Structures are given as structure tokens and as C-alpha cells.
Amino acid sequence: MKTVVSNSMVAHLWANQSQESARNGNGSFFFEGDTIYSYRQSWPIARITNKNGPGNPIRRIVLFNSDRYGITTSRHAGLAGLALHQHNVIFIAVPNVRAGLHDYRAGLHKEDHEKNLEYLTDQVAIFVKRARQARLYARYCADTAAQYVIEFDTYKAAFLPDSLLRAKIPEDLAGAIAAKMARVAARAEKSRKRRTEQYAARYAEEMKRVPLWRAGLLTSLPQGYGLPVYLRKVLRAGASDNGFPNSFVAQTSLGAEVPLVHARRVWSAVREVLRTGEAYQHNGHTIHAGAFQVDSIDVGGTLRAGCHTIQLDEMRRFAGAEGWEV
After folding, report:
1. Which DSSP category does 201 fall into?
2. Quick one: 293 exposed, middle or buried, by C-beta within 10 A (0-12, 13-18, 19+)?
3. % of the chain at pLDDT higher than 90
4. What torsion do the CA atoms of 72, 75, 77, 82 make, to the nearest 10 degrees?
5. SS3 at position 16
6. 106: number of CA atoms within 13 Å, CB side?
7. Do 157 and 56 contact (CB within 8 A), yes or no?
8. What 8-state DSSP symbol labels residue 219?
């Protein structure tokens, strides 16, 4: 089990809770158990809690640090958030992710939860005030205040249900909040069209870079939601599970790596799904790939593992390049 890995792998291993700890080469980005840190243990970026959202027994709550970040820590936080993409989680930003400096390994205490609830009520009040004062962004501020009320109710129900604190929207703003869903739907459609156009442009540009990345001439590809995941083979120095001093790994364009022998085993599982026409869903039987596990393989051959969705065509291309049966 490797504990010194790339920044992307630190985030992926944490999001999947595949092992107890890992860090990058200089120790500036690391996780221990459920918490991921930037530079030091007194600066947690996020923590995967053991609490679920109300009425949703499988949607885990993740607490993100609400404090402002520096440039590098912002990058670390971005990687952590991206690694959780497609995981069934609820994000709540609060000032207390872990207990204080002298007790950072412990969970949050009652006073920490109270401070977090106070922070969320303060945010409601701030955005209600802005909604009253703003002209151009009054609707946005009212919607943000409503979102903080939702986060307050979720946090309180999960961590401190006996708290006497309350968060609500004043009645004179209730009309604006009641129309939120209609506005959200309209904005979502507009955003969808804009994302489709942006995706087409980014995809066309990215396709020019993919061959260079596959050939090892680029260290990384742009990462973004909706962009395809690509695969390449990389030689990694150091002792491997098979005892040889160097070994090949399959690397994704999101920065995750698995031993090549594991990638071949996963490809065999994909071929079996295509042969039988029976989809695979992780439930008891586990298909391991390095420190990760395969969540599902649909009847069309699309594989999902954590934040990765890998299309059949890309896996088939990779398998063919390796001389595996396709």
C-alpha cells in the first residue's frame, strides 16, 4: 500500500476511504482517516462524517472548512471536491470541521456544533440583509439565504437535534423563496445550454491534447465535470506488489492510478458484462482496482468507480493497445 502519492491520488484515496492515510511528496496535502488537510493538521479542508442527510440513509454529510484559503490550499480544496464528484454526499461549509488545535484527532464537541449552527444562522441573516439592500442580485441573495436554512436544518438534525437555535426566512421574503424552484429550473435550463456549448468547445480543444498526454508529453489534461476520462500506461519506479523494482500502472486523466494487472482484471469484468448482458453493481462481490473498487458496470460497458466514469470505447482502445483480448 503506497502512502506517498500524487495530489490527485491523495484526494481520490480520501474520497473513497480506501486506506487510513496518504500524503503527497512534500507532505503539504494529506489525509488521516476521514479528514483531509492542507499543510498542517490544524488546517483541515474537509471531513467525511458518519452522519447522513435527513430522510436519506445513504447520502453522507461532508463538512468543508468555510475559512478562506490561500492559493495552494484552494487547489487542494478543489481536488478534494472534485474527488467527491459522483459520490452521494451533502456538502456543508462550516468553521469547525475538526475539534480545536490541541484535540485535532477527536470529533466535534457540542460547543463546536453550536458554533457551526451559529455560523449558519449568521449567514442566513447576512444574505437576508443583502437581499433587502441589493438591486441587481436581490434574488440571488434570497436564494442563498434559503440554501443556508436548508443546510442549517440538515446540520441540526444530524448533529445537534436538541439545539434551541432556529433559522428561518422573514415572512416578507417568503414569496421570493416560494418561487425559488421555478427560477432554479429556468436557470438550470439556461446553464445547461451554456454548459453544452462550453463542453463542445472544451472537448474540441482537449482532443488536440489527448494524443500528447497519452504519449507522455503532457503530465496532465484539463479536469472538469462532464469531460471524458482517458487512460494511459505509465512506468512507476519503486517496489511493486509483484516484487519487481519497477512496474506499469494504468493512469486516468483525473490522476488516479492502479496496477496494470488490476486494470486487466477490470477489463475482463467489463467483457463478461458485455458477454452476458448482465450489469454489475457492487453489492457483496467486490472488483478491486488498486486502492479503489468498481461501483458499477452497465450493460453498455460504461464503468463507474468513485468520481470516475469511463466509457467502453476508451477502455477498449486501451486494452487493444496493450494486446489484451477485445
Report:
1. H
2. middle
3. 56
4. -170
5. helix
6. 9
7. no
8. S
- Cα gap 113→144, rounded to integer Å: 21
Task: Indicate the SS3 state at residue 57.
Answer: coil
- Give me 251's grid cell: 493512469
Q: Distance (Å, rounded) from C-alpha 60 to C-alpha 232?
A: 32
User: Which residue type does 221 have?
Assistant: L
> pTM for the full model?
0.65
DSSP string of 116-173, one letter each residue: HHHHHHHHHHHHHHHHHH-STTHHHHHHHHHHHHHHHHHHHHHH-TT--------HHH
- DSSP helix/strand/coil, 208: helix
Give 84-137 pLDDT, tens digit per residue. 987 888 999 999 997 654 454 556 888 899 999 999 999 999 999 888 877 667
Rounded to an integer, what distance in angstroms lies between the CA atom of residue 285 and that of residue 18?
16
Q: Are 232 and 216 in contact (CB under 8 A)?
A: yes
- Helix, strand and coil in the chain, % to nearest 5: 45, 20, 35
